[in-house]
Each structure stands twice: as structure tokens, then as C-alpha cells.
Specification:
Helix content: 55-70%
Structural class: alpha+beta
Radius of gyration: 34 Å
Number of helices: 12
Distance between the termini: 37 Å
Subcellular location: Cell membrane
GO cellular component, one term: plasma membrane
Strand order of the largest sheet: 2-3-8-5-7-6
Protein name: ABC transporter permease
Oligomer: single chain
Order of helices and strands: HHHEHEEEEHEEEEHEHHHHHH
Largest sheet: 6 strands, mixed, barrel
GO molecular function: transmembrane transporter activity
Membrane topology: Multi-pass membrane protein
Length: 378
């Protein structure tokens, strides 16, 4: 005895579908299209979200505290700087810095550059050439774009507002999205600036969670009575990007669901026509003692088989589409193979089978409950 013979309803459903192959194939094709629509749209949206999160993930670790310009202050007070540093202890590194702008003259010409004054440039930047000092006391560190424009390298001389500096390092190109842009900047020791006080404190947190804690605590302590400082938490941008892609994913899946519902209507129609054509056959079965439940079970299994067959083919086609996406786009393999993509495959398959089942319930119920005499009379 084969496995199918142990389940007569499944065996009979297979035979019924096989008798009308073309009609069965067309009904399953609707499920295939719906499953492919849901799976590919969901996966493509998820891949976009994962790619964007990977590219922008670094920005969630940074918090920038600056004075509230509405109060007329342009620098942070020593007390504010000390508070930020205490809050950041154990959760990251707080780097106070002075910012300005000036014309920089080098051997290759002149250019306007952003000036940063800080004592520990290694906390925020990386060097492409030379070494970043842990205590910046002398010399200038130039950004990569500025070095290329003015033909600068380690050991070259630059002039800023009449003062000459020796280049001790060239910064690596900045890849993260952050207001602190090193590419067209010059980093100088703090005491080279005439102003008192810092313009900003940049907190490079250990994680996004630490960054959120630091931002919330700084707001709570420094802005309790009045808005003394502005706290710019880059992680909030990342959260908004995630929310956008979540909405986009929901919209795309909703579009795919419409096609699957249309496929369900097609299966409903196929099952209704099939049961009508087989009224005599069903009437004979009922007349020889086959129970309503057996007829109902057989017809429901037919619908389920259409859903399973269409869902399986849809999953295969969707997987091929995702493979083509990886092959013909710069998206990384780790993003394509992310476990969360499997969720959309399972969702599409399960929804396809569910729609097929629901579409076959009414025709099956109607056929099972028809009186044998009425079925044989027509």
C-alpha cells in the first residue's frame, strides 16, 4: 500500500486534478503569481532596508551637543562640557572641539577649509598617512580631499591666517554620515584658537543604545529648566529610516496580496465549475453511501493541493528572482541570505495555501450538502 492509498481523500483529489490538467494548472498559476508578488516585493523591500541600515549603521553611535543659539550663546560652558563627559563615562568617549573656518595655503594653491580644534583627534578620525597623536600639541592634520587639492602630504607646510604648520598626518576618507566631515578639514591643537570655550561636544558612543542613553540623559540634566543645549542624536535619523522602510514593506506586501486574492477568486471559480460538472459523480458517491464529510474533505484537499503546488512553484521562482538580484546588483550576499528574507517566503507560501483553502470551502460545502437525488436528476 502506497502512502497516498493510506489517505484516500488525497488520492482522489490528485486524480480529479489530473483529469483537468490545464484548468488545474491555470488555477495554480494564479497562486504562483500571487506568491511571487508577495515574496519578491517583501524580500526586495527587506533587502533595501537591510542595505540602508548597514550603510548608515555607524551614524547611530554618535551624539552631538552644541549650545542653543536662541539663547545667544555660541559656546558651551565648562559646566555643560563636564556634564556631558560625566554622562558619557563608560558608554563612549566625549570629545569637546572648537570649530571655525579659514583659507588654507599650501604648495598647490589655496582653499577654504573647515577647522577643528581638539586635543584627541584619534577619538574621532582615522589616519591614511602619518599617525594621529593622542595629545595633539603641534602640527596640522589635513583631510584627504584638501590634501589632494593642495598637493599636501606628511611633512608638507601649510599656512592659516599667517601661521605656518607642518602636516603630521592625512585623514582617511570619511564614510559615515555625520556633521563632522574630515575630508575638507584641518585639525589643529586647541590652543591655536583664540576663542574661549568649545562649540560642540561629540560623543562617540559604544553602541546605538548607549548613544540614546547619553542623549536622553544630557537633555534631562541640561535642559530641565530651559533649553540650554541642542542635542543631535543621529540614531533618530536611523529610526526614521527604519520606519519608512517598514511602511514601504507593508505597502509592497499589500500590493502582492491583491494579486493573491485575485488568484483566490480564480480558484473559487475553478472549484465551483468543477463541482458543478461532477454533480452526477458526487450524486453517485453519495447514493452508494459515501458520507458528506468524505466529499467535503476530498474537495477541500483539491483546493489545498492547488495552493501547495502553486505556493511551491512560487517560492522557487521567487528564490531565482532574489538570486538574479544578487547577481546583477551590488547588494552583498549577507543581505540576500539574511534570515528575515525567509520570513517573506514562508509568509507568501502560507498565505497562498490559506487563500486556496478558503476559495475551495464554499464549493466543497455546497457539493457535499446537495441531496443525491437532486444531483442524479440533472
Amino acid at each position: 500500500m502506497t502512502v497516498l492509498e493510506r489517505f484516500p481523500a488525497v488520492l482522489m483529489a490528485f486524480r480529479n486534478l489530473d483529469r483537468n490538467r490545464l484548468r488545474s494548472a491555470l488555477a495554480a498559476l494564479g497562486i504562483v503569481i500571487g506568491v511571487v508578488a508577495i515574496a519578491t516585493l517583501g524580500i526586495f523591500g527587506n533587502v533595501l532596508q537591510l542595505s540602508a541600515t548597514n550603510e548608515l549603521g555607524g551614524i547611530g553611535d554618535q551624539v552631538i551637543v552644541s549650545p542653543n543659539t536662541d539663547t545667544g550663546e555660541s559656546t558651551l560652558s565648562p559646566r555643560d562640557v563636564a556634564t556631558v563627559q560625566r554622562v558619557a563615562e563608560g558608554r563612549g568617549e566625549a570629545v569637546p572641539l572648537v570649530t571655525s573656518g579659514a583659507v588654507v595655503t599650501g604648495s598647490g594653491g589655496q582653499s577654504f577649509a573647515q577647522l577643528y580644534g581638539l586635543s584627541d583627534p584619534a577619538a574621532l578620525f582615522e589616519a591614511e598617512a602619518g599617525t594621529l597623536p593622542r595629545q595633539h600639541r603641534q602640527g596640522a592634520i589635513v583631510g584627504q580631499s584638501l590634501a589632494a587639492e593642495l598637493d599636501l602630504q606628511v611633512g608638507s607646510a601649510i599656512e592659516i591666517e599667517g601661521n605656518r604648520y607642518r602636516v603630521v598626518a592625512v585623514l582617511a576618507e570619511g564614510e559615515d554620515i555625520t556633521p563632522i566631515r574630515p575630508d575638507n578639514a584641518v585639525v589643529l591643537p586647541e590652543d591655536e584658537f583664540v576663542q574661549d570655550g568649545y562649540n560642540q561636544v561629540v560623543v562617540q558612543a559604544n553602541s546605538g543604545e548607549d548613544a540614546r542613553f547619553v542623549a536622553a540623559t544630557v537633555r534631562e540634566r541640561l535642559n530641565a529648566r530651559e533649553q540650554r543645549v541642542s542635542v543631535f542624536e543621529l540614531g533618530s535619523i536611523l529610526d526614521q529610516i527604519r520606519e519608512f522602510f517598514t511602511l514601504l514593506n507593508g505597502f509592497l506586501i499589500a500590493l502582492g496580496t491583491v494579486s493573491l486574492v485575485v488568484a483566490g477568486v480564480a480558484i473559487f471559480n475553478v472549484m465551483l465549475m468543477s463541482t458543478r460538472e461532477r454533480r452526477g459523480e458526487i450524486g453517485v458517491l453519495r447514493a452508494v453511501g459515501v458520507q458528506k464529510g468524505d466529499v467535503l474533505r476530498t474537495l477541500v484537499v483539491e483546493s489545498a493541493l492547488l495552493g501547495v503546488l502553486g505556493g511551491f512553484v512560487g517560492i522557487v521562482v521567487s528564490s531565482l528572482a532574489v538570486g538574479a538580484l544578487y547577481q546583477f546588483s551590488p547588494i552583498g550576499l549577507d543581505v540576500v541570505l539574511a534570515p528575515s528574507n525567509g520570513f517573506y517566503l514562508l509568509l507568501a507560501f502560507g498565505f497562498g495555501v490559506l487563500i486556496a483553502l478558503l476559495s475551495g470551502l464554499y464549493p466543497a460545502w455546497k457539493a457535499a450538502n446537495e441531496h443525491p437525488v437532486d444531483a442524479l436528476r440533472d
